[in-house]
Design a protein that fits this description.
4 strands
């Protein structure tokens, strides 16, 4: 039985159900002569045009920072920004760091306590546990 393709693509409904990329701008800072910027300079020459063409919704800024280590700074729609230092990294590693910043939500990293992913406002059906509830420990009466 052959598989038929969909006849119609989905219709946009004013942003409802559409994915909005959280990263609005990436800043690439580099130094022209420093050795720690060698990978960044190669990235800017070879990979950045392709990266920018494949992500037209992200604004790209490239600026020199003399005598400083190269960094990539991501600006997000919620107003936050995250910076990753890419000193002494190869151009392929810098592509991965740029993709990390692109995919971030801009929210502050939070630790999930207790390994639980679900929180509840309702009290437990069993009530609050206490070490004083339940059976007594073993007795040593002889």
């Amino acid at each position: 039985m052959p598989v038929a393709a969909l006849q119609r693509t989905s219709v946009g409904r004013n942003g409802v159900g559409a994915f909005i990329l959280q990263c609005k701008r990436l800043d690439f800072h580099y130094c022209d002569w420093a050795g720690s910027s060698k990978g960044m300079n190669l990235f800017l020459q070879h990979h950045l045009p392709r990266f920018a063409a494949s992500h037209p919704s992200i604004e790209i800024h490239v600026s020199p920072r003399p005598s400083k280590h190269p960094v990539i700074r991501g600006h997000y729609i919620n107003g936050t920004q995250h910076t990753i230092c890419v000193r002494n990294l190869e151009k392929d590693q810098i592509v991965k760091k740029a993709e990390i910043l692109r995919d971030m939500s801009g929210e502050k990293a939070r630790r999930v306590k207790g390994g639980r992913m679900v929180g509840s406002l309702n009290e437990s059906t069993r009530g609050i546990w206490s070490p004083f509830h339940g059976a007594k420990g073993p007795s040593f009466e002889g």
